[in-house]
Design goal:
The chain is an alpha/beta fold. The chain contains 9 helices and 16 strands. The termini are far apart.
Amino acid sequence: MFKILVIAETAGEDLTTSTLEVCEAAAVLSSSLGESWGMLVPDHATEAAGKVAPDVMSLGVGEDRYPGAGQVASMIAQVVESTDIVIMAATSTGKDVMGRLAQHLSVPLAQDCTGFEVVSGEIKFKRALYGGKVVVRVKLSGRPMMASFRPRSFTPIASSGGFVKAVTCTVNRVTPKTSVHLQAKAVSERPDVTEASIVVSGGRGLRGPENWHILEDLLDALGPDAALACSRPVSDDNWRPHSEHVGQTGRAIAPDLYIAVGISGATQHVAGIARSKCILAINKDPDAPIFKVADYGIVGDLFEVVPALAAAIRDTS
């Protein structure tokens, strides 16, 4: 068994972008510690895993491709006894699985980490607190050490172009205590907000869901790498789906560019966007809190500013 284990999430037959990012973290850890690393994947994604990981362990799920988090954690717990470090992406699924797995193994867990450091062979995981104002370094006792990493904390690992034959591990199937009901995912050509390099987010300043076409027009101008998001009041009022809600109580993001349109900038919202590399705020209120964290700000009527911005982007592209 390799000493550093990545638990993969999949999208069909492929690995998710957040999993590829965690693989990069595993490779860096492996180089720093001089230990081997590998990946645990469902058997239907072994080909994709074999192109990026030096070793792959296949977890046979058979026809049940979507077992619940409790069942997955129970199965993983059977194959990680000799592993020193277990890591996974801090997605909603990853947090669920890792929390249950930590309970099975009776070991501590560092959730939603943004990085790590290795000093004299000792690992400390970095976690952001208080809306990113404080970064703590967490040392874990017990084995295996377990941590989940926030999406976009690392660049995705590059494919080796080859294929490593997977070793199939046999585990005892457990009777689930909960049932999983699948819901068809909305088809979208846009990337997920946690993986997009550009995120355009709208707040109550748009006055209603009928005005969201203004942001969609800006997205079209920005290109296929841009994703649409919203503030919590917008999702609470059912203007937009909860999956687009970014903030402390929604989804934490770290895009290269975050454009906040008609968002006042409550503390909870800022906490979820604090790791954005560049923040552009558009608001008619010059005293809006969002301007305190923005790199650039435009004070003006969004119904005039956003269309003009979209037109200017098209003119330069």
